[in-house]
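Office hours follow-up: a student asked to see two folded examples consecutively, so here they are.
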Amino acid sequence: MTNRLLVLLDDHWPRDPAADWVLLDPAGRALQQGRSAPAHWPAADRTDGLLGGSQCLWLEVDLPPGPRREQPRLLAYALEEHLIGEADTQHLTPTHSRAEGELRRTGVLVLALSRLKQLIAQFGSLGRPLASLRSLLQTAPAAPTRWVLAGDAHGGILRTAPDHALRAEWRNGAEARDCLEQLLPTALALPQAATPPEALELRLAPGFSLADGSRPLPLPVVAGPAWQWWEGYEHGSELLHGDFTPRERHARHWQPLRLPLALAGLAASVFLIAGLAHILLQRHALNELEARSLALFQQALSGTPAVSPAAQLARVLERERARHGQLASGDLLSLLHGYFLAGGPAPQALDYQAGKLVLELPAETAAGLPGRLALHGLQASAQQNRLTIVPMAAQISTTAP
């Protein structure tokens, strides 16, 4: 079971070390919540951060079509007119993209690189490395036909569309009312508000409410369910990506593959051990055969040095056959017998000299015979329509002294 600590980080953290936090169980249910400095945060298996305040901007820009690898460069170029500083000093996180004519309307979260590095270093120094970081702008709830104001005593998020939100700051209900009286007319004039909303839905934290104002708001106000700032965290875009991806996340990506890889490694080890055992057994059997062959050779040819026992025995066997009037493997009849056993056609002419038989065959019939003759102990070579045959024993004997 993995409990995680989710910390709400405002513009002043860590200069003001106190921060709102909630301890969540694996199902996302709150176990504890409070506001304190890091020294008093509860222990957890992982720590996530949620950026509040004005640390992030959520913008939309028009991008020309291009390969995915070119998106960072195109985003930086398109954002130049929207940012005060240089685009390369910002950390850009694409959030959504939709086609509008020949261009693509692309959303992007903008966070200062210096702020991102500061947060990563600070959590690292606390011994609580950030596993995830997202923006409160995206986690505030959205409604299809209404605008939603999600807020507490520190400020709120005005969600005007599923892909657009504005941050407002206040310190109490009276300031919140004054802020809305100024913010709503400005938001209604934005291009995103081409279709005015039906109403403004208030989703406020428990214990917080808007004060009555002297002027009516430009939208009907309806009450919604209470808002908890940690709800909807999973809907936000991950800000820790690219060079800032935590090592633990890479490990989690490999986690599902650990068992299959372990099984594959075990199978490979078993196969390797079995293969080595088979090789050792084969080598042992070969050594036994060579020892037996050498013993037979010494028994048959005592006093003769064993240089190539098989070839030497074959040569002696040939001599003994000839001495006892039997056919040797290099005799004409033996060669012809093997040739016809291999399915050779009737030759047109033949020539036999000293254990070598040369046959003249019909055209294109000699090509496939050498392979079949080898099965019957004969060495053959084909050249056009001529086939030369000698016994394999003769070939072996030529290599033996």
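And the second, which I mentioned at the end of office hours:
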Amino acid sequence: MKKLLLFLTVFLFFGFLIAEDVKTGEYDFGDITVTLFEEESPEAEKARKEAEEKEKPVLNEEGKICCCNISDEKAFEPKKFYIQPAIGSGTGLSFFRFTAALDADFLVARREKINYYVGLDIDARFSYYIGSDPREIAVQANVVFDFLRDDPNLRSASLWISAGIDLIFIRDMIDGDYEDYVFEYSQAWGLGVDMVFKNYVVLKLGIDGLVGIWPDLTIAVGYRF
């Protein structure tokens, strides 16, 4: 008898729902609790879906979660063109060498993990070593292989190779005195790696040809615009 009364109560309740609107919430009928939910409006549904999309993790090109927490897809786009000035020093055959470099490169191809650039590399070098005192301006074409990195702090590691002409103003020391500068020219070459960090600060490591012949180690710091 109790179950029959409970059934009739629930039956009458749903009939009441058909007849008029009721508020959402929970209704207790003894052994049975009925919960009513308000139908979601199109605007509320759209807002909910947009919020869910924002909470989804950003994936890299391999479909893995990006650890750098980049929300803007444009952050993955490589620079179509960049200018990269840098200053630093070198050593090797030279006792000390000051270097000011300027790279200007264009994007020519793009792969999943590598961006390919070609452009111009101009270096001004001021060297000091016993017996000579060269001043060089190296004008070179370069090729850059920009390897992308899945690292929150390091954007890429760029392998670069350059070759061109080295314009040299040099004076020699004879009997303890330097002579006047004379002009010479030679081949110019270099190779190395640019470490491009998240904020586009660049650490440049490489080997350059001192007066076009002797290898000289180079370390410089720059910025990629």
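Two things to take away from it. The chain has a mean pLDDT of 79. Helices lie at 2-19, 42-55.
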